[in-house]
Amino acid sequence: MRKFLLSSCFGALAALATGGANAQDWSKPTGDDANTRYSQLNQITAANVGKLQVAWTFSTGVLRGHEGAPLVIGNVMYVHGPFPNPVYALDLDHDGKILWKYVPKQDPNVIPVMCCDTVNRGVAYGDGKIFLHQADTTLVALDAKTGNVVWSVKNGDPAKGETGTSAPMVIKDKVLVGISGGEFGVRGSVTAYNIKDGKKVWRGYSMGPDSDTLVDPQKTTHLGKPVGADSGTNTWEGDQWKIGGGTTWGWYSYDSDLNLVYYGSGNPSTWNPKQRPGDNRWSMTIWARDADTGVAKWVYQMTPHDEWDFDGVNEMILTDQTINGQARKLLTHFDRNGFGYTLDRTNGELLVAEKYDPKVNWATKVDMDKNSKTYGRPLVVSQYSTDQNGEDHNTKGVCPAALGSKDEQPAAYSPDTQLFYVPTNHVCMDYEPFKVSYTAGQPYVGATLSMYPPPGETNMGNFIAWDGKTGKIVWSDPEQFSVWSGALATAGGIVFYGTLEGYLKAVDAKSGKELFRFKTPSGIIGNVMTYQHGGKQYVAVLSGVGGWAGIGLAAGLTNPTDGLGAVGGYAALSNYTALGGQLTVFALPQ
Amino acid sequence: MRKFLLSSCFGALAALATGGANAQDWSKPTGDDANTRYSQLNQITAANVGKLQVAWTFSTGVLRGHEGAPLVIGNVMYVHGPFPNPVYALDLDHDGKILWKYVPKQDPNVIPVMCCDTVNRGVAYGDGKIFLHQADTTLVALDAKTGNVVWSVKNGDPAKGETGTSAPMVIKDKVLVGISGGEFGVRGSVTAYNIKDGKKVWRGYSMGPDSDTLVDPQKTTHLGKPVGADSGTNTWEGDQWKIGGGTTWGWYSYDSDLNLVYYGSGNPSTWNPKQRPGDNRWSMTIWARDADTGVAKWVYQMTPHDEWDFDGVNEMILTDQTINGQARKLLTHFDRNGFGYTLDRTNGELLVAEKYDPKVNWATKVDMDKNSKTYGRPLVVSQYSTDQNGEDHNTKGVCPAALGSKDEQPAAYSPDTQLFYVPTNHVCMDYEPFKVSYTAGQPYVGATLSMYPPPGETNMGNFIAWDGKTGKIVWSDPEQFSVWSGALATAGGIVFYGTLEGYLKAVDAKSGKELFRFKTPSGIIGNVMTYQHGGKQYVAVLSGVGGWAGIGLAAGLTNPTDGLGAVGGYAALSNYTALGGQLTVFALPQ
Fold first, then answer.
1. CB contact under 8 A, A543 and B59
2. Catalytic residue (choose from B25, B33, B309, B430)
3. Is B430 a catalytic residue?
4. Pairing relationship of beta strands B582-587 and B536-543 according to DSSP bridges
5. Does A95 touch chain B (CB under 8 A)?
6. What is the pTM for the complete model shown?
7. How many Å apart are CA B7 and CA B128, to the nearest integer?
8. Which residues 528-567 on chain A approach chain B with CB closer than 8 angstroms?
9. Residues near B416 by Cβ (< 8 Å), separated by ≥ 6?
10. Each residue of A287-296: pLDDT tens digit?
11. Which one-letter DSSP state was computed for residue A456?
């Protein structure tokens, strides 16, 4: 009898541990290695999604921003939360009865070192273990059946401003983890740990000597050309690269055929561009690294010498599409800087770079002329150059704002429509850099800013469909606030996303027409996921307003320029929602 | 246009302000003055309740125990929460958009003075104002349209252990409020404030000189006889009455024909009976007071000289039923001591006193012989007498436990079935009194205890139907944990209640058969309510595990005897639910 119960509860775990993911599960925080967030499940369709209802709910026991999404592996759902980062294993056969709960003991002094709320983007699964990346940078491996700690390793040091917010990524026999702290002068890195015992296998920094960045001067390319020696130091003045930012707190993708892992590095530190002359490589960069060695195959820096905090961490979505009659292995990326990029992921060739919000004004375009000296670089508009305007000058009307035309909230891609579904911010800013000195563990921001909707408009967000082959918006649904929830596309011809007011919405994948909405307990900054259990398709999302856009509510800030400028722009959020921390699970009626 | 919007939003407020309550609203925390928690709404029936689904949800932004229920007046819902006691006015025309929010500034030092979680049982409405009884005992009147403070008054002093947890009760031109702190030697009282300006009109203490208790030695009766002079002091040794307990944190009822307000007073202080010889009047007493003057018409002490913390605060339910062919104005009360009492509410005549849990063992019965010297008193079993067993003796196996066969979780009554629906605890205890000295503002408990299900049983609760005319259980639905949620009966022939695991359940009023269940985000200790809006009936309940039964989860306690003995008995709750604070609103599908 006991044996039967175990196999009933954990049968699917064994299947996945041997590599056999299936469409009924949601076994990765990104949905799949390609980061498409597309599900083949098709019980819920454009025709019936209007009848969707709440099946069951679960409170995480924690307030503030709930980013990420639960995992489902077999009959068990794994739910995470923001600091102090509880993890629950819930029994799907019994309305989410708690099989085990893990709550790490963490020093609460890590909270003030977290720039943009106490968020955590979720756990990963592999080798029968659940991997949690704690706020204090501890990476802990939990036995998926019991919640017992199998191993743990400290990835960084909160005393230096290093924190953990990103979801780990399991790739074969390794678990990869990034680091947060770009506003504290942290030097970003990605580290691969052995999935069995937590032993460090490789670490690749975003800047520094080639031995740190795992860049091969001859073989690693940038726009088709070898990067040359010391690219991670010679584009910086002095030792600034040692506190150079380029943190790595976004989503990771993996192409098993190429054995390459893709991710973006964040803003250079400080936000005051005057203090760090040069291109500041390899901040603001798309990385393609060998999964086994960490060595970079290619890089592409989107925003050399950032002047606006256009952090490059957003996800890379891997698709196979045909461009100009040619089948290509593509990588599509919606950058904070407002450009949607499509590259050949085998070699980093730049194919498309277009604005995915027409209000983007800091650059006229990305130079696509391969013969140009500025090939691949954005052509900056002087009026909006905070470097050219200089320290203590308030540069007004820059679009997008620092939190970008999109932040970490991941887009989805449907192979059925060959469209990307992108949750976007529609926000501009005033930005005033100032001189700041570095003290380990202290904020190292060097700019004040305020955010607001584009002049003459009231909607601070849009949910858009994007053609990555041509770089064009296909449809755009306006939203009152930024869409800070990750999207989900399904074979049912629908796309889901959440809103900061707390609505879960489903729209038609082809037209964007709203088909369903439901007011969840709190604002949604989590990512919508779906799974099948007992023959039935479910859709689930975490509510819990917070994150950068919701930091005013989450941290109780009221000064408009607080929260790195977000408080003012999103003040009206308090008319719609309050703090929360809940999972809502939806299904069609019996 | 502005005028139209105002009248659309607040039209019903004006109606109620002039006294015209209607069945579509839920304008009192008790549902009605009689405390029946019965609604005439009948769209949701035994036949269709199985199709009930979640219409919308709202997070209160606060964790820990959520007792009480929201109010609905017209198109506005008023939602409250535990400390720091936020109040939200939600727009029912727009999925609960926040019209206004009020969060009092309170000294968090009040939290350790709250015996049994940071609960608040809800706001009251009258004269265009929302009344909030804060944890720090401040009674604040808010403009129902704007949330602005109209007046506020301090009802007690947390430095002496006085706190506010109970819902205020509006009676005509007064608002009544009780006080908590029986475990801190607080002397209980009820105070009536003028609804217009907060001026104190009268205050009646539970013990003390007749001038304090508002007892008339000649006219106030106990079981038909005048109570005589100084009854509130001469049943105490020395000055013990000054720290005598008898707090008043339960629900209040009102009979407008008799102009009497009814409520119960709590346990005498300390829990060590050896320290307070005598009957300890008028702790553990049902009070009938004139609403205008506060003078007591009659009293009935259920548990003279309490030895088990059988706090008498539970609600009085006023019904008109026929007993032995005679139409009677009745008052029915399910006491913590395990007896269900039915009295004539005009004069306090005792009609029925029977055990509503067959496991109750501390008394054989209540003496119903009017000629007996012990008429109206429980006949205590020596084995379970913690006074007879003495200090530092662990009296084992007392049923019910200190939290009673029922605590504050209110029962409902349906005139259709003439049955009471009672959420009960099915818990026993070991109780060891010890000598304790009094220091103002410090715990003054004087006993340790541990709680557990009755020997040989596993269910710690039952939801029962009770015939108050005969004192018999009609049906009983077992529950794994105490049913700590208030019940709701409706004209649809159904009864609702919540469970500590988080289920909202609907059962057939006649048979108790379960017709519907839904897993809400967190354990339910709130009271189910119903209202009609836009022609449609809704059912709503607050989730948020806590209260005495959930204090282990709520306050993070782990020692089994902590939480006044509750932690051990309810430890398994953590397998089902985590902290929360959410409103879930249900309706039938379109």
1. yes
2. B309
3. no
4. antiparallel
5. yes
6. 0.94
7. 14
8. 543-544
9. B491, B493, B509
10. 999 999 999 9
11. T
